[in-house]
Specification:
With 226 residues, the chain is α+β, with helices and mostly antiparallel strands. It is built from 6 helices and 7 strands; from the N terminus they run ββαβαββαββααα. The chain has a 4-stranded antiparallel β-sheet with strand order 4-5-7-6. Strands 2-1-3 form a 3-stranded mixed β-sheet. Strand 1 and strand 2 form a beta hairpin. It binds zinc ion. The site of zinc ion (ZN) has 4 residues, from strand 5.
């Protein structure tokens, strides 16, 4: 049984679901994305994504018209294995088609690009043996790309990443709920002071870099929460 947090982009609310590994993900239609497929190799009790990503998957699956094997999707930052500001940690990215033939992958890549349901489809030269596509939101806080700036009042998958990082580093956010409230801001301020960053309570470029560099692939700590 997995606890699944879903940011509903339409209502700006966080939703919580409890699903078995062989059940479909929330907002998924026709059982084309099971919890165990979305989880992949992640050992986390809690998973997260947002409604737009699930709807994009539904569209992609419909447009492609055939089953799509999912090799990699959700991952928590401390589990690592992707870049420092990967959308996989946001639960909004998929690496798919690892078991397809090259011509099937080409067709899938083309349908992903043409579908226009994704924010980004990785060029095939970077990922020759799979297809990566994702949803991403806002303007990257760093000019080089990555996550958007978040601050008090923000909600959604990027808030979950920051809360997860902070708890893992020992700065309690009072829960993992995707809502940037006073406790999350206080945790950000405490972290910024300790890390020698400008203490403004806002997770912008420098704070994202510091947090992600400190947490990617370090593993679950005693202060990590689900
Ligand atoms: Zn990927």
């Amino acid at each position: 049984m997995a606890k699944i947090l879903v940011y509903n982009n339409s209502t700006n609310r966080m939703e919580t679901y409890y699903k078995g590994e062989r059940e479909a993900m929330p907002y998924n239609t026709n059982q084309t994305l099971l919890v165990r497929e979305f989880r992949g190799s992640s050992g986390s009790s809690t998973l997260w994504t947002d409604r737009n990503t699930m709807r994009a998957w539904n569209s992609q699956r419909y447009i492609y018209g055939k089953p799509i094997d999912v090799g990699f999707a959700f991952r928590r930052t401390w589990e690592g294995s992707h870049g420092t500001q990967s959308q996989h940690y946001a639960g909004t990215a998929f690496d798919v088609g690892q078991r397809m033939t090259q011509s099937e992958r080409n067709a899938l890549y083309n349908s992903a690009v043409n579908s226009k349901v994704w924010s980004y489809v990785e060029p095939q030269t970077y990922t020759p043996t799979w297809v990566h596509f994702d949803k991403r939101y806002g303007t990257p806080a760093c000019s080089t790309g990555g996550y958007p700036l978040i601050s008090r009042g923000s909600r959604g998958v990027y808030v979950l990443i920051a809360q997860d990082d902070l708890n893992t580093l020992g700065y309690t956010t009072g829960g993992l709920d995707g809502i940037y409230g006073d406790k999350t801001r206080d945790a950000v301020l405490a972290y910024q002071r300790k890390a020698g960053l400008t203490a403004d309570g806002i997770v912008g470029c420098n704070t994202w870099r510091a947090l992600q560099n400190a947490v990617v692939g370090t593993g679950r700590t005693s202060t990590t929460i689900d």
